[in-house]
Specification:
Number of domains: 3
Number of helices: 9
Helix content: 25-40%
Order of helices and strands: HEEEEEEEEHHHHEEEHEHEHEEH
CATH superfamily of the largest domain: Glutaredoxin
Largest sheet: 5 strands, mixed
Structural class: alpha+beta
Distance between the termini: 97 Å
Shape: elongated
């Protein structure tokens, strides 16, 4: 006969075990109008296959994977034909996929997956950019905690609609264990720091001789942070203009802090020499994984950020004649 303590322990054990299994999400479904595919793949968002199943003669399938936390998945037939699946723990999802209408799967019991297709299909009907912007704003206001919104938020640029990015970033904080979402939250936090008038985040990188040069060490001068690379054609085309401006204003207090996204040091040094770039050059030779580029949310080059003497941001993205006019204004010419 069990004593009282043993009985309580058993109840707690059964309860915790039941809760554990209840937290897992599952995925099953059916494929119709399938005359081509013998296998169906569960993949991560990078198209890496995690599990393979063969639908039965009636098209029914069930994946063995138990989903114990939210993540982004694909139910794929090939790289062009797949269905999005975003499980939440506890959901027992059933999806019917019509291969003649794959963009409209029938989804039962997967909140985020269902929202994704509703949002995506609605957006495709909106042709005017203004209508699309208004729809995404409404979407985020009504679903600030849904990771589905992360696939549509880029319709709203951070310059004009930062408050929506901030709202979504805060709403997704409980999913920050997910790399995709964590990267978005980090970029949003960085974007907040890059608003005009804010103090520019510091960059600490080495020059070609291995000497560490901090961006913050240039206080007292107007500084153009120039993200570029030897392999970037538009960057190289922009260099002659920068050379003219540097030669004209350097003695008056203008400096360029060039952050290269090169990965080959010799190519970097050759471009500096060939283009006669006499200003400060730094790089960690990490290509698009450059620490400086990450801090400044750089997704394309050339990209510039202009700072005042106190290290505060004056403008983002000035190039060519726009940069020339701004420097004329600063130095009152």
């Amino acid at each position: 006969m069990m004593n009282f303590k043993s009985t309580i322990f058993l109840i707690l054990l059964i309860s915790s075990t039941t809760t554990l299994f209840a937290k897992n999400a599952s995925l099953s479904g059916k494929v119709i109008n399938n005359i081509k595919y013998e296998e169906i793949y569960l993949q991560d968002i990078s198209f890496n296959t995690l599990e393979t199943q063969k639908p039965d003669k009636d098209g029914n399938f069930k994946f063995d994977t138990k989903f114990n936390k939210f993540d982004f998945y694909l139910i794929a037939f090939d790289k062009e034909n797949y269905v999005i699946f975003f499980p939440e723990p506890g959901e027992q999802t059933v999806i019917t996929i019509d291969l003649e209408d794959i963009k409209n799967p029938e989804i039962i019991n997967s909140v985020h997956s269902d929202l994704y297709y509703k949002f995506n299909n609605k957006l495709e009907t909106l042709k005017k950019n203004g209508d699309r912007v208004d729809f995404v704003k409404k979407m985020i206001n009504e679903n600030p905690n849904s990771p589905t919104c992360i696939f549509f938020i880029n319709i709203l640029n951070t310059k004009d609609y930062f408050s929506y990015h901030e709202k979504l970033s805060e709403g997704l904080s409980k999913y920050s264990y997910n790399k995709f979402i964590k990267d978005y939250i980090t970029k949003t936090e960085n974007a907040k720091k890059l608003i005009v008038g804010n103090e520019a985040p510091d960059i600490v990188l080495n020059d070609p001789d291995g000497k560490t040069i901090k961006l913050s060490s240039l206080r007292g001068q107007y500084v153009l942070i120039d993200f570029w690379a030897s392999w970037c054609g538009p960057c190289r085309m922009e260099n002659p203009n920068n050379v003219k401006l540097y030669n004209k204003y350097h003695d008056k207090g203008f400096e360029i802090y060039a952050v290269s996204l090169d990965k080959n040091k010799n190519s970097w040094l050759k471009a500096i020499k060939d283009d006669n770039l006499a200003w400060i050059h730094v790089s960690d030779l990490k290509y698009w994984k450059s620490e400086g580029a990450k801090i400044y949310n750089v997704t394309g080059i050339p990209h510039t950020v202009l700072l005042d003497k106190e290290g505060k941001i004056i403008a983002n993205g000035l190039r060519g004649n726009f940069l020339k006019l701004k420097l004329e204004e600063i130095f009152r010419e």
